[in-house]
Amino acid sequence: MFRGHRGYNKNVNRKKAFEMKLIAFGVRKDEEPYFKNWEQQNDVKIKLVPDLLSEENIDLIKGYDGIIGLQTTPYKREYFEKMKDAGIKILSIRNIGIDNIDLDAAKDNQIPITNVPAYSPSAIAEFTITQIMQLIRHTKIFNEKMSHQDYRWEPNISRQINQMTVGVAGTGRIGRAVINLLNGLGTKIIAFDPYHNPELEKRGMYVDSMEAMYRKADVITLHMPATKDNYHLLDAAAFSQMKDGVMIINTARGTLIDSEALIKALDSGKVGGAALDTYEHELPIFDHDLTGQKIDDPIFNNLNERNNVLITPHIAFYTTEAVKNMVEVALNCATTYLNDGKMTNPVVEID
Ligand code: NAD
Ligand code: COI
Predict the structure, then answer these.
(1) Which GO molecular function annotation, any one, does this entry have (predicted)?
(2) Residues contacting residue 251 through CB under 8 Å, at least 6 positions apart
(3) Does the CB atom of residue 170 touch ligand 1 within 6 A?
(4) Which structural domain, as residue segments, surrounds residue 137?
């Protein structure tokens, strides 16, 4: 429960009472118009830094009240120590996942954190369906064949999604948006989540365990946060319980899958294909221009070279609708806190 925090202004008379200063890290060109527009409408100054928050630039936070972040690289303990020293009052992240944040360090240093939990579940859900369909219809294989003028059909005949069972692991905002889209495709849907959604429960969609899902699903799609309890949830033991030729979709977090075990399961044919928008060692690769460079990651290269593995660089979220919401909601979370002491979308609250 929030009870107060050093430095926020209780007297709501915003701009006049408290000239707040915000600094935003990792700001891309496509986000800038949303920042500028919000800045004008709210008469609040925001320093835009293109680079992610890191050891190299953390000292830029001096003199600011709040940080607007977005990154999958770690928010380390020493960052929170520096935030405390610099008098930072709030870290407002403009994304969902919090697995890269040292939450204890934030608490220890009295830095409250907010996130944007629902910037667009549809963005990730639509991408998930895209990848399921591409895997089932062998688009990578056909694109490769056609690139050297092989227009034959055989042997790459497809199954139909309306004849398949899709297992949705995690029925939060994104998992439910995926289920809504799958409903229109005539697919049999089964779901697992330790917390049942009443609507899905009524429809009898839940199985009792991931193991039950492994036994029944032709496609398994992951939509849960990464935590210390689900590290390598899909490992050799999990793959061995799945149907032969199962397809795996991961738009959640890379650490949910043991990539080496996945390679073995692809080799044996136990797994028939995988679509990975997140990968456990993605940080040095995704969202970097590595054109012409050799990627020094044999596991990544092994997966990427397969014609039944689709790798994308963590782009499920990347739509105009989502990006606009990420920027605007994160800025509103920060200013609401700085003006009124109210936590919108709390991740870490300070007593
Ligand atoms: P959410 O909090 O609304 O839902 C997560 C659900 O997972 C909850 O219902 C929870 O009970 C369930 N869950 C937790 N542990 C589980 C387990 N071991 N097995 C089954 N279910 C479990 O979150 P969301 O908005 O649906 O987002 C899910 C995740 O998607 C985020 O945490 C983030 O890591 C990832 N994400 C990825 C992208 C991308 O661009 N690829 C974008 C946004 C979010
Ligand atoms: C998230 O919102 O958690 C994502 O995975 C998106 C990414 C830009 C950090």
Answers:
(1) NAD binding
(2) 124, 127, 128, 131, 174, 221, 222, 223, 275, 277, 278, 316
(3) yes
(4) 121-311
